[in-house]
Design a protein that fits this description.
four-stranded antiparallel beta sheet; mainly beta; three-stranded antiparallel beta sheet
Length: about 110
Amino acid sequence: MIARIPVLQNNYDQSVNLQLVSQTYTFRFRYNQTEDAWYCYLGLLGEDPKVKFKVVNGVDLLAPWRAYEEIPYGVLFIHDRDLEYGRAGKDNFYTDGRFILVYADIE
């Protein structure tokens, strides 16, 4: 399964619930103006977030937490639709923006 994670434009602190595999997860996205960076807080629906990470391009964002049962066993990454090296910033990281968040199941 491959899923695009919905991120709203011009909403700098938002949450979305998404069913991946057989669990529902809450993704919370917060923009940090000081760092000009996005952070994701991820956990099971109805529970406190299990992990927090900076949303960066070019890596599997879930790799460091693959052993946790509360984290989906898949690959989460930023896709740059311009196919250039870049960074997800305040106004280019959203569902139809230059940078989109994609989850791919690896089971």
